[in-house]
Input
Amino acid sequence: MKILVVSAHPDPASLTNALRGVAVEQLEADGHEVRVTDLYAAGWKSAVDRTDFPALPEAERLRVPAASSAAFTTGTLTDDVTAEQATLLWADALILAFPLWWFSMPAILKGWVDRVYAYGFAYGVGAHNETRWGDRYGEGTLAGKRAMLVVTAGGWETHYGPRGINGPIDDLLFPIQHGVLFYPGYAVLPPFVVYRADGLTESGFAATAEGLRARMRTLFSTAPIPFRRQNGGDYAIPSMALRPDLAPHLTGFAAHLDTAQPSTGGAP
Output
């Protein structure tokens, strides 16, 4: 199988990049073909601006969705973006490796999403009508592929537990896992999260690396997080609100998990 690993840490000797190396080594040992996009090493441009749309007339306002759609349709997106899009289409699985900074991904990785996820590629896909609201949330360009996060966090695991001060890790990662990954079609696997990252000892790293190797060996067999599919009948269209008879006791992120599907639990 083919895997793309996108990593986001400025220090080549960081834990994030060490874990990336472990993942790549195991995947290649298992016979997979792996490509790596190291965003910092590549000097990735993270901010969306007019230079992303070379064909946009100088006198025309920059409306990003419209400009993105026009550039994607006419094949005038910049070379760095089209190369990443081609690699996403090539890959059977995507792994995003990054430190949790201010409760989210680093800006450079968000910028990769902002620029690569063009209108017509990752969003704005499919017809919008009375029975469907586009091909998204379980459908779309990247459907049939798998994705997962490899995340390092400075806090203790209890800090990110159900009653932890930082909020549950699954809630913090929901915008990435459900929005960035499930939205364009990926089946999203439970994340691999390393807590107390700054204090990880040599023996702790060895145990963590072995855990990551185990996850890589099961990349294509682990059950995905059971997010509800948008067009599967659970949501009213066009309001996109969950049907009132489904999980009536739940609101927020948890309501969008289909507990009738096999549960994989949260992060290891």
